[in-house]
Structure formats: structure tokens, C-alpha cells
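Weekly puzzle thread! Below is a chain. First person to post its structure in C-alpha cell form gets bragging rights.
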Amino acid sequence: MTTTAENAARILGAFADIDVRPILPHIRTPTLVMHCRNDSVVPFEAGRQIAASMPDARFVSLDGVNHIIQENDAAWPRFLSEARRFLSQHP
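Winning reply:
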């Protein structure tokens, strides 16, 4: 919904070789990971694994299919609420 099929293929190709998993356990800052249960780009379990790999991460499951949350998505209110809560706790 956020790009053309051609651009989506380019973006996926560019990011396919990036693997940050080895450094995740070394991140020592509060981190909020939010992921849609039916994300059409990245598997839901990948979001859970990223959060579980960081010592100070909190994982939030969102309803939806979009990888990038849109204002008209059902997940939008929770996305905003969680982001605001996180930012107020970690200024």
C-alpha cells in the first residue's frame, strides 16, 4: 500500500543482505519493537525474535497486515498509544 511493486522489490533486495542479529544482545538501551501479526513483508516471529534478542526490549503485537502502519489501519491507535507511552517513560 505504501509503494509500487517495483519499488517494494528494490527495497527488499537492498535489505535482504542486512543481518543485525549478531549485535542485538549488545544493545543496552530501552527498545520498543512493534509488529503486525499478519505483516505481509516480514514474518511475525521475526519481530518477536528481534525483541527477545535485546536485553531491554519490549515487544508489542499489533493487529494488521501492513509492514508500515497507516493512519487508517486498525492498529494505528494502539501504535500511537504504545509509542507515546514508551517515549514518556524514556525521554
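Puzzle host: Confirmed. Bonus trivia for everyone else. The longest strand covers residues 31-36.
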